[in-house]
Fold this protein.
Amino acid sequence: MRVNADFDRRVVVRFADTEWIPSPMPGVERKMLDRIGGEVARATSIVRYAPGSAFSAHTHDGGEEYLVLDGTFCDEHGAFPTGSYVRNPPTSSHTPSAPDGAIILVKLHQMAADDRTQVGIDLTGSDAPRQELHRDKREAVSVARLGTGEVIALDGPGGAEVFVLSGEVTEGGDTLGRWDWLRLPRKAKTTVTAGESGATLWIKTGHLDHVSAPG
């Protein structure tokens, strides 16, 4: 399966315009943002867990990165409420569940094979204009909190992704609202402007220099 798999193209996916697709596990559905592969894939998705749903125990050979958008996401390592940012490195394993339901933004098979950095951050514990979540030689991940009309530049040579956590922004003639997603190709240069109520953005840069599929 290939979804938005041409990484040399700009892509916008609006949350309201995409359908939930059932996963192999009952009660777990996905909105696919980009994907290369079948059930084991290099993938970026929004995943919804119905109350009481769970996934079987599994190992993330290529790592897992997720942000809890709503509810509480649980595994053997703890309960992660809305606003939690987690990186589980390659070779890590867990049995995820959502007793009360949850929605997460998740990226799979996108880490370096030798990455062993475990990250867990509560985003609600900071109101800083720019909060760095992770940085290594491949990528940088941060949250930007923008005031009304504030402008930020995106000019990373290794591409960029922007996920709107709250508020509204404009970029390239498009307006993006809550839970909309933008991917910019390598060497793209642009600006993002916050709307009247400001915006909070999850931003990743640099990583499109390292695109590969599992296997």
